[in-house]
Design brief:
The complex is a heterodimer of chains A (about 500) and B (about 350). Chain A is of the alpha/beta class. Chain A contains 17 helices and 23 strands. Chain A is globular, with a radius of gyration of 25 Å. Chain B has 13 helices and two strands. Classes of the chains: A alpha/beta (about 500), B mainly alpha (about 350). The interface of A and B includes residues 346 and 369 of A.
Chain lengths: ~500, ~350
């Protein structure tokens, strides 16, 4: 069988950095190939070369046996290659149909043939089982629906090879599973697919074959049924990685107690009568489908939102009305949900980010002047202690990888020896090696007696790290269950909002 | 062709961008000078001679640069925090008017009186910008609109005052305000020229602003708030306080420019005393990439164009309005240059 797609000996350099080195790859008819690798392994670069966004320094791309001219996305589209980007390229103020037609109409024609386009779109939609409403504005669609439009857009241009860049990065678990079912069905219709991922479980679940990239080189190819997550993890990282295990230990006195807290924003309850207690040396996991009040809970514990009813106490202090400064002063450390938009100022240096929260403390300023030496020393200390790679105090923090940025933010929070730590989605978007490092630090802080509240949408992570777990559903919190009681069924029910009836059942 | 964000911006690029921008602006303006029937090279030669050719022209150029340094600093400080203060012109006039008014009959000894006057001019400018900053913080009113429109209001107000209560009775009917007491005039920096000690005030201001921006908690917090407001709020930096602080500093600098101009050059206030110092300050700040040291250099460039254009006009007959064209063009080319320092072009 001839491959539908063949990349031979691709090399791509950006200045001193070699993003791809002598990479070869084949895709068979009707196959789903997973391209696996850590962040920065060169996956996206490779696919951008295939699609013509970048021009390779060496090597060729062949589609259906024909050489593809380098650096021309239009040629790739004409040859039947479609790409679904990680960040969608849709116009929110246009309808689904308009978005799909955009760019594939002829410029020289006056007006546009909407009815022909509509029937073609609906035909594709039926054939591949991708239901859409063609006249709805894209801005009204959910993330999952927008992705469907992206896929339809590629199919509308007669793509027979589809490339999906981190297709599940923005999807919740059930949506992701549905997507892969759809993709599987599409291969039966003769499509061939490559999807890029760094998540082992979805690679195992959805692919026929796996190609592993590491440091820009193709390190292994496996049939999915012949491999295991452990082997893939090792291939991807280049060494054995194991997430650290939580050791049982005795738990101390209550540190942070929330009782009957309600938070109202613009007249709506974003948190509704929630209660929780975090003890010294304990990790309390909050699980739930995204958008159920995690944001509000995070804001509450970061000092950015305040209870309209109920109380939040740290030790004997009521901290409900504290802003970020007072909270930090009182011994609260915070790891925000989004490290790029909230955790760090990208254009500022590592040292400035390291002390930003505590600039006004005597340690880092004197009479309104910044003690730069002390601050840089502190940053250097964090870099060493928390293994932040590729950073000096003067590096702009934007240039760090996600994992290293997160280690610095975590280090900044933990270096003060906090009584309580909020870890909001601490491993989102990180690769396996960085996840293990973050888990290690959280567990170390736990051993030292910090009380930790972990908000996570990754069930696996919550179960691995937490001593007790509560589910958040529509702004309400379930009763806690201990880690031993937290089997998949029980957590599933909790996350579906079924807990009041649990005792009765 | 598409734009790709640069991972790091080489220092050489940051330094050459304004030069390239100015060169492009001069090339574009050369077309206009050529259209006026004059050899552009000869015209630019006259311009340079007019600004640097003699002791007198050199001191004139620095006299012109003095308020530009201050209004440039005012714009740079505000823009760094994403407070778009377009009202430098109004703050300049307010500072000038208050200085002339108080300085006309202030019964304090020379040096103390001068210090008081400078502070008064700064306070006038600061208060004028505090209003738009308050409106933005509490009602979300766009400060571009409010500060810009305030310029016209202030200039009309100045007109009202110098035709009325502050009119100088000794000005032979010219609409001019009473002058500051001669005890409070800046001494000449170079004898028998108009260049005054105010230049040193402007240079000191640049140094102090640099110190504030890079070395103080306020400066670092301001920069954080300007670059990523959400992260700054998360770190516990009060955005309203930062914005208000920046507004007071920026307005004070523009007001100081007005005070210095009155105490150093004009004595009294007229509605024509500024050839657009406030607006040109925006160009100066942009050419300087919002850096205080760069502001000094950029102010010298803009002053060269303004002063040199007059000389060029006398020698070649090209209207001196060409100065405004060159300055405006260099703002546009600088904006393009900034695009190329942050992004690279890929095919």
């Amino acid at each position: 069988m001839t491959p539908v797609l063949e990349l031979s000996n691709i090399t791509k350099r950006f200045g001193a950095l070699t993003a791809n080195e002598d990479v070869s790859l084949q895709l068979g008819q009707g196959e789903i190939l997973a391209l696996l690798g850590e962040n920065g392994a060169g996956k996206t670069t490779l696919m951008n070369i295939l699609f013509g966004h970048y021009e390779a320094d060496e090597g060729t791309v062949r589609v259906f046996g024909e050489d593809l001219p380098a650096g021309k996305p239009r040629a790739a589209i004409a040859a039947g290659v479609g790409m679904v980007h990680q960040h969608f390229t849709l116009a929110g103020n246009l309808t689904v149909l308009e978005n799909v037609m955009l760019g594939s109409e002829r410029l020289t024609r006056f007006g546009s043939d909407t009815s022909a386009a509509r029937s073609k779109l609906m035909g594709i939609s039926d054939r591949f089982g991708l239901p859409v409403k063609p006249d709805v504005k894209v801005s009204k669609l959910s993330v999952g629906e927008r992705q469907r439009v992206e896929i339809l857009k590629a199919l509308y241009r007669d793509a027979r090879v589809l490339i999906l860049d981190e297709p599940t990065a923005v999807l919740a678990r059930p949506e992701a599973e549905r997507l892969f079912e759809t993709l599987r069905g599409m291969t039966k219709d003769g499509l061939s697919l490559i999807f890029i991922s760094h998540k082992l479980h979805e690679v195992m679940a959805a692919s026929d074959r796996v190609a592993v990239l590491r440091g820009g080189k193709m390190v292994a190819e496996r049939k999915t049924r012949d491999t295991s997550p452990a082997e893939l993890a090792e291939l991807m990282v280049g060494r054995k990685v194991e997430r650290p295990k939580r050791e049982a230990h005795s738990i101390g006195a209550p540190v942070l107690v929330g009782s009957g807290i309600t938070v109202e924003q613009e007249g709506a309850f974003v948190l509704d009568d929630v209660s929780f207690t975090v003890h010294a040396g304990e990790i309390l996991g909050i699980v739930g489908v995204s958008g159920n009040g995690q944001g509000a809970l995070g804001a509450l514990l970061s000092g950015l939102a305040h209870p309209t009813a109920g109380s939040l106490t740290l030790g004997n202090t009521d901290i409900g009305h504290f802003g970020p400064r007072d909270l930090i002063e009182a011994g609260v450390a915070r790891v925000p949900e989004d490290r790029h938009s909230e955790g760090a100022v990208g254009e500022m240096s590592v040292w400035e980010n390291a002390v930003l929260e505590r600039l006004r403390s005597d340690a880092f300023s004197n009479l309104g002047f910044v003690r730069k030496q002390a601050a840089q020393e502190h940053a250097r200390d964090l870099i060493g202690r928390f293994d932040v790679r590729g950073a000096t105090p003067e590096t702009r923090i934007r240039l760090l990888s996600g994992g290293n940025m997160q280690k610095l933010i975590l280090g900044r929070s933990l270096s003060t020896g906090p009584k309580f730590l909020l870890a909001n989605q601490p491993t989102r978007g990180l690769d396996e090696g960085a996840i293990a490092a973050v888990h290690q630090e959280l567990l170390a802080a736990r051993s030292e007696g910090a009380a930790i509240l972990l908000i996570s949408e990754e069930l696996e992570e919550a179960v691995q790290l937490s001593d007790r777990i509560q589910a958040i559903v529509k702004g309400r919190l379930s009763q806690p269950v201990t880690a031993d009681e937290a089997d998949a069924r029980r957590l599933g029910l909790m996350m579906a909002g079924v807990w009041d009836t649990e005792d009765a059942a | 062709m598409r734009l790709e964000r640069r991972e790091t911006v080489p220092l050489a690029l940051v330094a050459t961008a304004p030069l390239a921008a100015i060169l492009c602006a001069l090339l574009l303006a050369a077309g206009l000078i050529g259209a006026a029937g004059v050899n552009p090279l000869a015209a630019y030669g006259e311009m340079l001679r007019g600004a640097f050719g003699s002791r007198l022209s050199l001191t004139e150029m620095f006299t012109r640069a003095t308020p530009l340094i201050l209004t440039g600093l005012a714009a740079a400080v505000a823009f760094r925090a994403r407070l778009w203060n377009i009202g430098g012109e109004g703050q300049f006039f307010m500072g000038a008017l208050v200085t002339a008014w108080i300085g006309h009959s202030l019964g304090l000894p020379g040096p103390i009186g001068m210090a008081v006057l400078l502070v008064c001019g700064m306070a006038a400018g600061a208060l004028l910008l505090a209003g738009p900053a308050y409106l933005r913080l509490h009602f979300g009113v766009d400060e571009v609109v409010t500060t810009l429109l305030l310029n016209f209001i202030v200039i009309l107000f100045v007109g009202l005052m110098i035709e009325g209560p502050l009119r100088d009775p000794l000005a032979f009917g010219w609409p001019q305000s009473v002058p500051v007491d001669s005890a409070y005039r800046f001494a000449d920096l170079v004898p028998r020229t108009r260049l005054h000690m105010g230049l040193l005030v402007a240079l000191a201001a640049a140094g102090i602003v640099w110190l504030i921006l890079t070395r103080t908690v306020f400066g670092v917090e301001t920069r954080a708030a300007g670059l990523n407001a959400k992260a700054a709020a998360f770190a516990g930096i009060s955005l309203p306080r930062t914005i208000m602080g920046v507004a007071l500093l920026s307005g004070a600098l523009a007001g100081l420019a007005g005070a210095v101009e009155v105490m150093g050059v004009t004595g009294g206030v007229t509605t024509t005393m500024s050839p657009g110092f406030g607006y040109a300050g925006i160009v100066v700040a942009m050419l300087a990439a919002l850096h205080p040291a760069g502001v000094v250099v950029a102010a010298v460039f803009v002053a060269t164009v303004f002063v040199g254009a007059d000389a060029m006009s006398r020698a070649t007959g090209v209207p001196s309005f060409i100065a405004d064209v060159i300055v405006a063009l260099s703002l546009l080319t600088m904006l393009v240059a900034l695009l190329f320092t942050t992004y690279r072009v890929r095919r």
